[in-house]
Design brief:
It is a single chain. By secondary structure, the chain is mainly alpha-helical. The protein is 89% helix and 0% strand. The chain is rod-shaped. The N and C termini lie far apart (178 Å). The relative contact order is 0.02.
């Protein structure tokens, strides 16, 4: 700073004391120009710069507040989402457990139903076999009876003569008469 002041006071660099001239010392003149510019800027720009800095400070503070509120909201939403996730996981586990139990129950019911159906089919089969056996037995009996009857008729027809036939009829009439007298 002393050098800057000395450059104002020193007349050695001035061509003449009473005349106007150019200062050829670039370093001294740049420092003088810069100090004048800074002085004017500080004097006139102090309020503007202060207002700009205050506005910037307010915007930064508002942005910080907004971001803090957003962060708190995000944290709250995250906690809600985690709570929902835990709830959904519990429900999924419950559904899984219930599903496995339901599957086992349905499997057991299906097996029991199948056994009952097989048992009914076995009973139907046995009843059908019994019915067919009875029918076959009845058919055999009927055929045997028909053959026996036919054989008896053939025997009677071949052995029975008119005289024997009349004698049999008379004997039967006599038996009926005796039965009638006994009943009366």
């Amino acid at each position: 700073m002393k050098n800057v002041t000395d450059s104002f006071v020193s007349l050695g660099h001035w061509p003449s004391a009473g005349s106007f001239g150019f200062n050829t010392d670039i370093l001294a003149t740049n420092l003088i120009n810069l100090s004048i510019v800074f002085g004017v800027l500080i004097f006139f720009g102090k309020g503007v710069l202060s207002d700009l800095l205050d506005n910037r400070k307010q915007r930064i503070l508002n942005t910080l507040r907004n971001s803090e509120e957003l962060r708190e909201g995000a944290i709250e939403q995250l906690e809600k989402a985690r709570a929902r996730l835990r709830k959904v996981e519990k429900e999924a586990d419950q559904f899984r457990v219930n599903g496995y139990a339901e599957i086992e129950r349905e499997k057991f019911n299906l097996i029991n139903s199948t056994y009952k159906t097989l048992e009914q089919l076995e009973n139907y089969k046995n009843e059908t076999i019994h019915f067919e056996q009875q029918r076959a037995i009845n058919q055999v009996r009927q055929r045997v009876f028909q053959q026996a009857l036919q054989g008896a008729l053939e025997t009677l027809n071949s052995c029975l003569t008119n005289e024997l036939h009349l004698h049999t009829i008379s004997a039967n009439i006599g038996m009926f008469g005796t039965m009638k007298e006994i009943m009366d």
